[in-house]
C-alpha cells in the first residue's frame, strides 16, 4: 500500500511539475508577445524634428515681427509727440500743455494696450500651434500602432530603459514629415 501511495505521490508531483513548466512556458510566450507588441517614442524628439513645427515657428516669428514693427511705429509717434511738446512747451498756454500731456499719456496707454494685445495673440497662437502639432503626433502614433499591431506605445520620457528595437521614433518622424510635405503641396 505504501508503495502505491509513493508511486501515486510521485505521479502527482511529476504532473504538478509538468503543469508548472507548461504554465511557465505559456506565461513566457505571453510576455514575449506583449514585449513584441510594445513600443516607445521619444515624443520630444519627434516634436523638435517635425517639419510642420519649424514652418509654424517661422509663421509665428513673422507675425511677431509684424507686431513689433507696429509697436515701433507707435513708439516713434510717441517720441515725436514728446519732442514737439518739449520744443513748444514755453509757447503753450497751461490748457494747451495739459492737452498735449494728455495726448502723450493716451499714446502711452495705446502702446501698452497694443503690446499686451500682440503678446496675448502670439501666446494664443503659440499654444494653438503646439496643440496642433501634438495632436498630429498622437494621431500618427495611434495610426502606426494600429497598423503594426502594437498594444502599448510609451513616451520615452516615462521609461527608465527601453530596448532600441522597440523605439519607433524615427518611423514616426519620417511618416509625419512625409505626410506633411504631401499635404503642403
Would you kindly provide a written description of the structure presented here, covering whatever features stand out?
- With 185 residues, the chain is mainly alpha-helical.
- It has two domains: 36 residues; 148 residues, Skp domain (Protein Binding, DinI Protein, Chain A).
- The protein is 82% helix and 4% strand.
- It contains five helices and two strands.
- It has a two-stranded parallel ribbon with strand order 1-2.
- About 10% of the residues have low confidence.
The neighbouring-strand order within the major sheet is 1-2
pLDDT averaged residue by residue? 83
| Terminal-residue CA separation | 88 Å
Order of helices and strands: HEHHHEH
Major β-sheet annotation: 2 strands, parallel
Keywords:
two-stranded parallel ribbon; single chain; 5 helices; Protein Binding, DinI Protein, Chain A; 4% strand; 2 strands; 185 residues
Which SSEs are present, and which pair or pack?
Layout: H1 2-36, E1 38-41, H2 43-49, H3 51-88, H4 94-148, E2 152-155, H5 169-184
Parallel strand pairs: 1-2
Amino acid at each position: 500500500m505504501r508503495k502505491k501511495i509513493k508511486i501515486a505521490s510521485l505521479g502527482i508531483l511529476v504532473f504538478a511539475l509538468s503543469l508548472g513548466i507548461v504554465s511557465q512556458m505559456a506565461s513566457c510566450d505571453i510576455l514575449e508577445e506583449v514585449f513584441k507588441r510594445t513600443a516607445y517614442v521619444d515624443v520630444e524628439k519627434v516634436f523638435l524634428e517635425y517639419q510642420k513645427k519649424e514652418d509654424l515657428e517661422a509663421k509665428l516669428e513673422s507675425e511677431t515681427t509684424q507686431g513689433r514693427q507696429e509697436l515701433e511705429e507707435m513708439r516713434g509717434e510717441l517720441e515725436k509727440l514728446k519732442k514737439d511738446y518739449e520744443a513748444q512747451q514755453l509757447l503753450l498756454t497751461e490748457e494747451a500743455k495739459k492737452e498735449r500731456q494728455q495726448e502723450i499719456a493716451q499714446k502711452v496707454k495705446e502702446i501698452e494696450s497694443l503690446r499686451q494685445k500682440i503678446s496675448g495673440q502670439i501666446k494664443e497662437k503659440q499654444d494653438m500651434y503646439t496643440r496642433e502639432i501634438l495632436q498630429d503626433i498622437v494621431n500618427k502614433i495611434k495610426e502606426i500602432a494600429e497598423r503594426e499591431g502594437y498594444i502599448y506605445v510609451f513616451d520615452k520620457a516615462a521609461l527608465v530603459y527601453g530596448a532600441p528595437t522597440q523605439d519607433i521614433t524615427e518611423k514616426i518622424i519620417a511618416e509625419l514629415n512625409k505626410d506633411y510635405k504631401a499635404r503642403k503641396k
